Amino acid sequence: MKSFEAIKLYFDRAADQLQLSENWRRVLLTPHREVQVQVAVELDNGDLSTWVGYRVQHNKSRGPMKGGLRYHPQVDLDEVRALAALMTWKTAVVNLPYGGAKGGIALDPKQLSKKELERITRAFVDQIHDIIGPHVDIPAPDMGTDAQVMSWIRNQYEKYHGFNPAVITGKPVEQYGAEGREEATGRGVGIMAFKLLGRMGRKPQESRVAIQGFGNVGSHCAKYMHESEFKIVAISDVSGAYFDKRGLNIPDMLRYYLDHNLTLQGYAGAERIANKDLLELDVELLIPAAIGHVITAENASRIKAPIIIEAANEPIEPDADQLLHSRGTCILPDVLANAGGVTVSYFEWVQNLQYYKWGLNRVRQELEAVISRAFDDVWQLSQEKRVSLRTAAYMIAVSRVYKATAASGSF
Ligand code: NAD
Fold first, then answer.
1. Given the CA of residue 237, which atom of ligand 1 is nearest to it?
2. Whole-prediction pTM value?
3. What is the pLDDT of residue 410?
């Protein structure tokens, strides 16, 4: 199933519950604007090369549109469109005053020099600077982009529009970035894990956890959950999976990861298991925090964890989601589970607009308040309506976007 079809399926389930008309469904699903541009630059060797860049702005009824910019060879319009819609529902479910957008360029950043990446980024901004802005559409980092890329974007945008740090989030902390942005998504996942297991009557100390992915999200999630006394028995990254039934030594793994260029390759402090086996371990909680589409109709029947938290975007395919739901697996959906990142991006934007910098403690406190409220709303609705947490999250999001669009009277 293509990415946008999957998002539409979850949207339709919520729309059925909300009894939305066909016309309204079309209004809410159709992107506000889709832009495809040519990005042509000279490579270091003098050759001229061309890429295709995209920016999809899905819905702006609740505020300026917000969403990442992805540099990856498989970026295409369908994926960007799906992720833009996901951002509309994500910002709505945590009640940030934003709409949703997403962008990307189909390229492999590992094949390009830093100078080439800078030229491509600046050429892309030249093409889209008129349709982004602090009150229009605010990009952020995503797969393949980082604080450096955000810094180039800000600088290039400011050449056209003057001083405007709020045009982009995920900037370096020294350049109007927010304290705590880097840890925010993983920390948010950890906070929600604590709340979800509490609601289900499980204690952290008695809960075995497996985490797929030890990058930005997985490592910060593991750190927070270790500090909250969860027993993390398995962690993987592209180099393989690491297992200890007594609980992994997380501080040791974090040190190793930081000392070895952000990888666990060669870590010898735990038993090695096959990467795919991590997903099928006998644990209380499974957290896919790496890439999309890892739980499919093929392996879903072998997943033993009764609780799954989708830290990555779209890690569970719709067929697998259906199968797991019918078996009683509790799934905290991506649209809520990984919203900690965009929440702290929102705090960064607020600070930029006010020229006032918050400390780390304030960021952490406000993050916990925002996502705890969102979690409680979703949990309560799922209990009241006897629907999955995914359908409840979509119901809250779709209903907020519908009401804002209808109230504005402008489509
Ligand atoms: P990252 O690149 O920092 O880390 C990805 C991790 O996954 C790495 O440890 C990598 O080795 C591992 N990995 C890749 N393929 C794997 C595989 N087949 N098996 C096991 N491990 C594998 O990325 P990230 O920023 O941590 O993002 C992870 C996911 O979370 C993505 O789906 C991303 O879209 C989503 N997400 C991230 C943020 C954020 O703020 N970083 C926000 C929302 C959603």
1. 21
2. 0.96
3. 76
Whole-angstrom distance, CA of residue 280 vs CA of residue 300: 9
- Ligand 1 centroid to Cα of residue 98, in Å, is 24
Catalytic positions, written as ranges: 102
In a mutational test of the pocket of ligand 1, which residue from 71, 145, 217 has the highest number of ligand atoms less than 8 Å from its CB?
A: 217
Nearest to 315 by CA among 289, 341, 338: 289
Contact 196, 309 (CB under 8 A): yes
Centre of ligand 1 from the C-alpha of residue 379, in Å: 26
Q: Which residue has the tokens 């970035």?
A: 177
Question: Encoding tokens for residue 226?
Answer: 């270790």
> Which protein residues are within 6 Å of ligand 1, measured from CB?
143, 185, 212-218, 236-238, 275, 289-292, 311-313, 338, 341
What is d(CA 61, CA 73) in angstroms, rounded to the nearest whole number?
A: 31
Whether the predicted pLDDT of 1 surpasses 80: no
Among 273, 287, 323, 326, which Cα is nearest to 302's? Answer: 323
What is the model's pLDDT at position 254? 98
Burial class (CB in 10 A: 0-12, 13-18, 19+), 52: middle
Tens digits of residue pLDDT in 178-204: 999 999 999 999 999 999 999 999 999
Tell me the residue length of the chain: 411
φ, ψ dihedrals at 35, nearest 5°: -120, 130
Report helix, strand or coil for 392: helix
Q: What is the maximum span of the chain, computed from C-alpha positions, in angstroms?
A: 63
| CA-339 nearest atom, ligand 1 | 43
For residue 337, report the distance from its CA to the centre of ligand 1, in Å: 14
Q: Which tokens hold the place of 47?
A: 């050759």
What tokens appear for 62 in the block? 């609740």
List of long-range contacts for 264-267, beta carbons under 8 Å, 24+ apart = 264/214, 264/235, 264/237, 264/239, 264/240, 265/237, 265/239, 265/240, 266/239, 267/239, 267/242
Tally Cβ neighbours within 10 Å of residue 250: 19
Report d(CA 250, CA 234) in Å as an integer.
Answer: 10
Mapped onto helix, strand or coil, the DSSP state of residue 269 is: coil
Q: Where are the alpha helices (DSSP H) in 162-215?
A: 181-199
